[in-house]
Specification:
This protein is an alpha/beta fold. The chain folds into three domains: 75 residues, Winged helix-like DNA-binding domain superfamily/Winged helix DNA-binding domain (Arc Repressor Mutant, subunit A); 110 residues, D-Maltodextrin-Binding Protein, domain 2 (3-Layer(aba) Sandwich); 98 residues, 3-Layer(aba) Sandwich (D-Maltodextrin-Binding Protein, domain 2), CATH 3.40.190.10. It is built from eleven helices and twelve strands. Strands 4-3-5-12-6 form a five-stranded mixed sheet. A five-stranded mixed sheet has the order 9-8-10-7-11. Strand 8, helix 8 and strand 9 form a beta-alpha-beta unit. It is elongated and about 70 Å long.
Amino acid sequence: MTHPDLRLNLNLFRVLEAIHTHGGISAAARALHLTQPAVSHALGQLRLAFGDPLFVRQGNRMQPTDRARAVIDDVRVHLQGLQATLGKQASFRPEALERTFTVGFRDVLESITFPPLINRLQREAPHVRLVSRRIASDAVERALGTARIDLAIDRRLAAGNRLSSRHLLDESLVVVMRRDHPLASGPLKRATYLAAKHVAVSQLGEAVPLDVLLDQDGRARAIRLTCQHYFAASQVAAASDLLLTMPRSYAANFARLLPLATRSLPFKLKPIPVLAYWHPSRDADPAHSWLRELIVGTILQAAEFQDVNPA
């Protein structure tokens, strides 16, 4: 049986969310800059208010009960709304901001965005912490709605007006291979590309869009290896005869680090739109607005810097 108390300190809900997010009392205490006894005491008050243990220890983690799972989405949404309301009332100063933002990033953009982004954060908002998470495209809308992530950078999603969005860039694909590869001496032909052996990248086991398109045309690539990340795949391409098809701006970055040659993809494909997505409830949050403008601007500058003109 629950014991509602209108005098319940709203900070207790921050503790509930932190334990759920970080999986333990000690980790929640670090995230909230509180002592471990203070978090334990708050959890005791929450258990009394809800009439439920809320979390039970399993191994090294505190696992939520069914009751905690049932309320956590509402708790996050309301905490988010309250934070935005407070943000409206106070003048926003990035240098004074102490907050953790979680962003859904693909590794393609991590590599070219994070080096300049962290330099700007250290100068402008030294107390901000940024966490990057890989979120499956079909889970982005829910992750944003439940505040599991604050911002997502992804390909076009079928979210309609349920999410706020901003178009960032249109990414094209190129082919990379080792510099002394037999196919690196001239333009790449379609028949040669299809006859070659390939390394592909699929982080979550999803079908590679290029292969879906080729299959619709009755064609297929000979994929000999599938990696989780482009960096590993680029290293493979630099040390073998396998071809790697990857985003153009990312290929330019690796071509400076590894002995790779870049060639145009011998197919006419529409560029892949990349957008920033966030929940509409964040529109009025000045800290969120500042962060997304910072990230968007950094991505655009980094993509322009990394751009290449393949042969």
